[in-house]
TrEMBL record:
This is Unconventional myosin-XV. Belongs to the TRAFAC class myosin-kinesin ATPase superfamily. Myosin family. The lineage of its organism: Eukaryota, Metazoa, Chordata, Craniata, Vertebrata. One of its GO terms (molecular function) is actin binding. It comes from Tauraco erythrolophus (Red-crested turaco). The keyword Repeat applies.
Length: 519
């Protein structure tokens, strides 16, 4: 246990620090540093402050005890050991045999992850070693470490205003070499305070890149319709920052609409035969989903359809057309099985044909019509009947330019009864009255259970009635994972479980929709 008092400072201290000379690290050292507290004979005057100032300045001599007072001898020992690791990393001491800079950083970050009570100590050690350090390269390394610390671990509420003031002062001098990185540390600390820090410690390759001055990682976002968006993300870029960047590129700058888009992390295993899909919440760090290799890709999808669409931007139009087209052809948009279904499929096939620039004035072949038909309907719709419907449409309608055909396709799909639902194919359900397999659909308002053949809705669960849910492990080897839904009122609680391969994807998608609809 540390003797530092309980965490009592106001949360707003991270963004609002009094002007003047209050909350300097010297003030913190005078109140909380072990050595300063032992200076009993010195009065609180400028001479004492000058003596204490040396305690928060760079030294080439390893500390013999922790800077802060700990009654636990193990913490004191870990603190002094960490200071030596810090000195080796910053070039003040020679490294151990076969030890490199990456291992030094990893060791320090791992200590912070395992010992929360040492966060303040490590912060103070790094701040001390970058203050008045005559070695420019060593100082830069210290700031690089501080950059990681601020994004991963928060100081206590006691140290927070002092650390924030230190960063403010360091970033206010444009002539200094660490001006920009101090600003980055401020941003990291603010995000950490608001959203929590990154969950996973950095891979060695990320640390190596930071040490070589490459603070940003190249990332390709796979857009609907086969488009790609190239960007660079920093160590602590969160999803909502990248979403805003992409949406503004598409001409969707209103915050309300930006919140309807979601980034998905897709991990491919077993030569792309198995895929794990997970929506990334707006306040999560992208690096928490990325691996050292390229097995994780990031895609963009619109998940909520609350704000009206607009088509003045080509990329925006192409992205929406690409997403709806993929969902439609892969059976993710359910079609009602009725007399009008063949005509609906024919109209959408014709619009797909016109959306291709090179096919604008031609008649689609039988093979092309098959490509334009959802996979789930290719055996239930007569190819000849579909061809006849399309022939009639081509004779009675004037052909459209590709962009107009895409817009009409989008507008037509949006009128379909199950548009706006993210659908999942479910193989088992606890409710015996529901025939399986079936579809579960989720939108911004409700969860529906739909017959896989007739598209009749068996059950509707309003999201506002969803009390709790959890994922379930497979019951047996080779079995499917599941989700348990607890819903209804306190007077009439209900429970339903379902099994499907995409259980985790569905669970996290519901969480993201709930987050967005609560905003």
């Amino acid at each position: 246990q540390s003797s530092v008092p309980s965490l009592t400072s106001e949360p707003d201290s991270i963004v609002s620090i009094p002007a003047g000379n209050h909350y300097t690290m010297i003030d913190f050292a005078m109140a909380y540093f072990r050595e300063a507290q032992s200076m009993q004979r010195l009065r609180r005057n400028s001479a004492e402050k000058k003596s204490v100032a040396a305690l928060v300045q760079h030294t080439k001599v390893p500390i013999q005890e922790s800077l802060l007072q700990y009654s636990d001898s193990e913490l004191n020992e870990l603190a002094t050991k960490n200071f030596k690791t810090l000195m080796r990393f910053m070039g003040d001491h020679s490294k151990l045999k076969n030890q490199n800079e990456v291992e030094c950083i990893s060791e320090i970050l791992q200590l912070c992850k395992e010992k929360e009570s040492l966060h303040d100590e490590v912060y103070c050690q790094v701040i001390k070693q970058v203050t008045q350090n005559p070695n420019q390269e060593g100082t830069l390394r210290g700031w690089l470490l501080l950059n990681l610390l601020t994004g991963y671990f928060l100081p206590s509420n006691i140290l927070m205003p002092y650390a924030t003031k230190f960063l403010q002062l360091a970033s206010s001098d444009p002539s200094s070499t660490h001006h920009d990185i101090a600003k980055t540390c401020q941003s990291n600390l603010r995000k950490n305070f608001m959203y929590g820090g990154r969950r996973h410690l950095p891979f060695p390759v990320e640390i190596e890149a930071l040490l070589k001055g490459r603070g940003a990682r190249r990332l390709v976002i796979l857009m609907p319709g086969g488009m790609e968006y190239f960007t660079r993300i920093k160590a602590f870029t969160i999803s909502k920052e990248l979403l805003q960047e992409i949406c503004e590129h598409m001409g969707a700058g209103e915050q309300e609409e930006i919140e309807e888009f979601v980034l998905f992390a897709i991990r491919s295993d077993n030569n792309n035969l198995d895929k794990t899909v997970r929506p990334i919440r707006s306040e999560e760090y992208l690096h928490d989903y990325l691996l050292e290799d390229t097995s994780v890709s990031v895609t963009l999808r619109r998940l909520i359809w609350r704000t009206p669409l607009h088509f003045e931007n080509k990329i925006y139009t192409d992205a929406h057309y690409g997403q709806m087209l993929w969902d439609y052809l892969n059976g993710r948009i359910l079609l009602s099985h009725n007399k009008e279904m063949e005509m609906q499929v024919a109209i959408l096939a014709m619009l797909q044909h016109w959306a291709k620039t090179e096919q604008q004035n031609s008649v689609p072949s039988r093979e092309e019509l098959k490509e334009y038909t959802p996979q789930t309907l290719q055996f239930s719709i007569s190819p000849q009947a579909l061809q006849n419907h399309v022939d009639v449409l081509l004779r009675t309608r004037r052909s459209l330019q590709p962009v107009d055909a895409k817009i009409q396709f989008i507008e037509h799909v949006m009128k379909l009864p199950f548009f706006g639902y993210t659908t999942y194919f479910v193989e088992r359900v606890s409710d015996n009255t529901i025939p399986v397999p079936c579809f579960f659909g989720v939108n911004k308002e409700e969860i529906i259970v739909v017959d896989s053949t007739t598209q009749v809705v068996f059950c509707t669960i309003p999201l506002k009635e969803l009390q709790k849910m959890r994922t379930l492990w497979p019951i047996s080897d080779g079995g499917l994972p599941g989700i348990e839904l607890n819903y209804g009122s306190a007077a009439s609680p209900k429970t339903m479980w379902l099994e499907l391969p995409q259980a985790k994807e569905m669970y996290h998608t519901i969480v993201v929709i709930l987050d967005a609809t609560e905003l």
